[in-house]
Design goal:
binds flavin-adenine dinucleotide, about 450 residues
Length: about 450
């Protein structure tokens, strides 16, 4: 490696161009700061390249196939063939389009983007390795947005047939049998998608249930749907070994697989880029400890998957706004409620105070079953319910739902909580018919003691 003498200076250095880092760069440049963004891979980070975007693209394709082949009762019959190379080109085409958009935005904002691997040489100085050269960058402030990576199980080595979520989003041939280790949201989303594309899927979960962070009321419709799809779910089970495409489970059972997807969580990249040489605090979980303005130390901020809280793209983006506001001296912002969405079948949203916490806090939980939703019936999927959590005065503190297309309700749910809306506000807001959003108003009417499409 040739160590170059190139050294430059910037007002704000940002490491990592995911939804945390690139948004911080755009916001800071917009406010007039001189910004340098360093990315070792592709702009857009995990979310755009190997996470949210390709997984939701795959899920949409899987939904189309599954709906087509199960549409017999509607009068439609179809035979569907899958060209996996074309599927991969389609998924990659979507991510490429969005990546181009991010690159153009950064360019238009005047952000200097450096392709390279950054690490701290000193408290106020980065070394950036790109190919054979190393350059140095001094900064006034830095934002660490280096994200996270898949956790590897000690007894299971990755290889051509044992892959992470990234590999599961780019399979080169359609497997007959797939095992997904981990029943968290990534494992459930990927397992469901491949099952709908015709793969025989087994999900192996060490805990006593899949989607264990969620209350039973929200996850049970998904458990039932997985069963209907023919997905085998083994809970309270671990994988002892994977050898010659055979998984040996803790139950003693052996299952034949073509591909094993390991989706057992993600670890923050705080042990890279010489971050550990800085005088900053790390939690046992590997997360960087920050204050309410995302400050880890004087002049050093950390955002996104690197810090505690749900590992979600929109949380990273919101923290980017906070960090930039703090750097600009506008320290009055606070992180709002972070909606969680799972693109399972049916979809799940969870926003604000949880269904399990509500009773202990003396809050009311009001449930509108989708069996009474015209839209749910028109989609031919009247599963699940929408729940509104409210206090005695009717102020809405939580909204949760499992059902078809409910991901699109999460924004309204977050807005209602942010604006401290009451069940009166929500029920009197005119919701278009027939949409799943009506279920929010219906649950709010129920909370007011005047249910509309369900009996008292
Ligand atoms: P990342 O997006 O991880 O970006 C970090 C960037 O830093 C990367 O590009 C990396 O290359 C770069 N980097 C790291 N170290 C260095 C270094 N030393 N020098 C230079 N560059 C470096 N979230 C949702 O909200 N909705 C979803 O539907 C969703 N689906 C997901 C599906 C999957 C399969 C996965 C894996 C994740 C999903 N997520 C989803 C989570 C989401 O992708 C992350 O929460 C989000 O990307 C975190 O953003 P970030 O900016 O903190 O980090």
């Amino acid at each position: 490696m040739v160590v170059g003498a190139i050294s430059s200076r910037t007002e704000l250095a940002i490491i990592g161009a995911g939804p945390g880092g690139y948004v911080a760069a755009l916001r800071a440049a917009d406010a007039g700061l001189e910004v340098t963004l360093i990315e070792r891979d592709e702009p857009g980070g995990t979310c755009l390249n190997v996470g949210c975007v390709p997984s939701k693209t795959l899920i949409e394709v899987a939904i189309v196939r599954h709906r087509a082949i199960t549409a017999g009762p509607t009068g439609l019959t179809a035979t569907i063939d899958l060209d996996i190379d074309q599927l991969n080109r389609h998924v990659q085409g979507v991510t490429a389009r969005l990546r181009t958009g991010v690159t153009q935005l950064l360019d238009a904002a005047g952000v200097t983007v450096i392709h390279g691997d950054a690490s701290f040489a000193r408290y106020d100085r980065l070394s950036i390795a790109a190919g054979d050269t190393v350059s140095h960058l001094e900064f006034d402030n830095a934002i660490l947005a280096t994200g996270s990576r898949p956790v590897q199980l000690p007894n299971i080595a990755f290889g051509p047939d044992v892959v992470t979520s990234t590999g599961a989003l780019n399979l080169t041939r359609l497997p007959n049998y797939m095992a997904v280790i981990g029943g968290g949201y990534i494992g459930i989303e990927l397992g469901t998608a491949w099952a709908k594309l015709g793969v025989d899927v087994t999900i192996i979960e060490a805990g006593s249930s899949i989607l264990a962070d969620l209350p039973a009321a929200l996850r049970q419709p998904v458990e039932r749907r997985l069963d209907k799809l023919g997905v085998t779910v083994c809970t309270s089970t671990t994988v002892e070994s994977v050898a010659d495409r055979v998984l040996t489970l803790s139950s003693g059972q052996q299952i034949k697989v073509d591909v094993t997807v390991v989706a057992v969580g993600r670890w923050p990249n705080s042990d890279q880029a010489s971050i550990d040489t800085l005088d900053i605090e790390l939690a046992d979980s590997g997360h960087i400890v920050v204050d309410s303005q995302m400050r880890a130390a004087t002049g050093i901020y950390a955002i996104g998957d690197l810090v505690a809280g749900p590992a979600l793209a929109h949380k990273a983006t919101a923290e980017a706004e906070l960090a930039v506001a703090a750097i600009l001296g506008h320290s009055t912002m606070a992180l709002g409620v972070v909606p969680a969405v799972i693109f399972s079948d049916p979809e799940i949203i969870s926003v604000g105070v949880g269904l399990d916490e509500a009773p202990g806090m003396g809050l009311g939980v009001h449930r509108f079953p989708h069996a009474a939703s015209a839209r749910a019936h028109s989609i031919d999927d009247a599963t699940g319910s929408t729940y509104v959590v409210a206090d005695e005065s009717g102020t809405i503190l939580g909204i949760h739902a499992t059902g078809p297309h409910v991901s699109e309700l999460a924004g309204e749910a977050a807005l209602a909580i942010e604006l401290a809306a009451t069940v009166e506000d929500l029920s009197l807001t005119i919701h278009p018919h027939p949409t799943m959003s009506e279920s929010l108003a219906e649950a709010a009417w129920l909370a007011r003691g005047h249910p509309l499409h369900i009996r008292r």
